[in-house]
Amino acid sequence: MDYLNLRRQTLARNLKNDDGMDALLVTNPVNVTYLTGFTGDGSYLVASDKKYILVTDARFEQQVKEECEGIDVHVRPHSKTIAEAAGEVLTKAGTKSVGLEADHATLGATDALQQAAPKVTFAAAKTRVESQRVIKDPSEIEQIRAAVRAAERAFSMFKATIREQDTEKDLVNAMEGYIRRSGARGAAFPPIVAVGERGALPHAPPTDRALGEGSKLLVDWGADMLYKSDITRTFKSPFGTAPTRRNKHERVGFDFDKVYDVVAAAHDAAVAAVRDGAAAKDVDAAARKVIAAAKFGDYFTHGLGHGIGLEIHEAPRIRSNSTDVLESGMVITIEPAIYIPDWGGIRIEDDYLVTKDGATRLTTLPRDPGAIG
Amino acid sequence: MDYLNLRRQTLARNLKNDDGMDALLVTNPVNVTYLTGFTGDGSYLVASDKKYILVTDARFEQQVKEECEGIDVHVRPHSKTIAEAAGEVLTKAGTKSVGLEADHATLGATDALQQAAPKVTFAAAKTRVESQRVIKDPSEIEQIRAAVRAAERAFSMFKATIREQDTEKDLVNAMEGYIRRSGARGAAFPPIVAVGERGALPHAPPTDRALGEGSKLLVDWGADMLYKSDITRTFKSPFGTAPTRRNKHERVGFDFDKVYDVVAAAHDAAVAAVRDGAAAKDVDAAARKVIAAAKFGDYFTHGLGHGIGLEIHEAPRIRSNSTDVLESGMVITIEPAIYIPDWGGIRIEDDYLVTKDGATRLTTLPRDPGAIG
């Protein structure tokens, strides 16, 4: 099945039904990749119900030949900007009104295009390609599964090799290496390794804190196989009992196991609420209710999850103010958490495929992956 | 010296002189970092001649405290979007007209801000922060030097460890590890390791081609220490003589040493043309003239160089259609190249500080770094 071609056909059909727009100018490189398979950047795709033209430059000429089929290619000379080249292509094609990607085209790029093609009318268009991307086709689901497998394989290496004296920075770097060794292009995002109370920072940047200097360990990582995966696990210190390992910054007063069980229950409640047709905010609420009932409501300070695919964060958004509705074929993260300042954070994150009746877990790593270190 | 504060004072002074704009909304995370030191993302900075307010969310609350001094912070609840929160801050501050960053604000973001702050007039503003960033202050030059040092140290490891059977993918992954081991956050961009004729692709993605299967090796890498470095070296195969190592894809007819000497001479001609006040396009022309005189004019298919700093590609642009003028304090790459399809490519890239009378080379790695492998 030529899924790339199917995607272009679907977009072309949607564009045809959109009165008054002769073409869509796809400027977001992720959307260009989705529609053509081209993995470089700095290239625009002119999309219409009749034709697709990729406007690129000589740096990528060979790569386009290797990666793309069935696409016309316009190679701009290095003396012309991408806006000038795209403007020429649009003018030559006789397009009168062109949609721009509202979530990617900047005010400056819009202005440059307008100057390059004064006869064309440009206007912000609906996020058509993003709307298509939100439902994954079978080839995409397989690629996300591959990214999950690579992340899980990397975790096995991580688990087998970590040492008490390794710092957060050491471990982030090591994880990046394991993810690549597992066949990925790299980490899907800078891995998070947070020791002790540093887990209370949802996006903790790595420090020189050693693994042995803390009673908890939070690891958030994913693989980039073009498609992305995203997993989080939280542990008690693998080195000795938790109280022994507590560092001077970690405050007491909360029991790891009890907080962990609340997050796990919130995770399960959210998964149970997932199905085709469920409002994303209701899934968020299902988790939030469990955490609030345990009196930790103020400590779950971000949304419950997000779509994953070519981007690590994409639609749908699963949070209290989301208007998104879940549909079969969406792939999402579920990642409830409790962050207690100066104590630490517990987050449990897995990847799920939304189905007609529920959710299929794509992560295969056990929630408690056993002894670590 | 508090350079962050100095940068904010300079911007405030420029804003005050800009009639009719009450504030600039800095949405580009790189510009937010430049002005505040905050290294997270998803945060906007409201800048006026009176005050700076960072609009962020709870994920970054602790990090902002650690990284920023002298900035007011507005933490949005997770039920509000960044546009809603920024709109509120701007409305509450009584701003009437707000500049948006033309090269970052999208049509969609502009629309969301307008809806969130209906009384405020938003308009594309000059690229003020980018214009400031183009001239590096002493702390920035030191940080770029540190990024050069890390890249060079990584290259020593690379050079010491490469093996005949390593593939381009292996070597890209290894280089990423060495760059991190050298103290960087990671590679400044995905390293390029191109064997044999693959060097003819300026942005060659890594394949399973082994180092031993080719008569040439091109390596393009840099370190991300928040500030970036960018270096390229090209070699004859380290394993045996070049003809012995030629693979079946590599066509003959060009002498490596002769092509190399043309690129080296073009590099030196460009460096000799660099000085405060030189037109960037004249520096590009100085290199291009040498390459054209050797009849390789059609094979130098990209611009000569670019600024580096917080971003790997930033102003000035050094190419034939550039209108930029070099000034003391700019930091640039010089990277002439010759790409011969099915034969290979030779590129020599170093980083330079523009001075009153010329250029100071920041790279310390010799052009010919000696035996490799």
TrEMBL record, chains A, B:
It comes from the Bacteria. Residues 142-356 form the Peptidase M24 domain. InterPro entries: Creatin/AminoP/Spt16_N, Creatinase/aminopeptidase-like, Creatinase_N, Pept_M24, Peptidase_M24B, Peptidase_M24B_aminopep-P_CS. GO terms for biological process: proteolysis. One of its GO terms (molecular function) is aminopeptidase activity. Pfam families: Creatinase_N, Peptidase_M24. Keywords: Aminopeptidase, Hydrolase, Metal-binding, Metalloprotease, Protease. Coiled coil: none annotated. Residues 12-135 form the Creatinase N-terminal domain. Belongs to the peptidase M24B family. This is Aminopeptidase YpdF (MP-, MA-, MS-, AP-, NP-specific). It comes from Fimbriiglobus ruber.
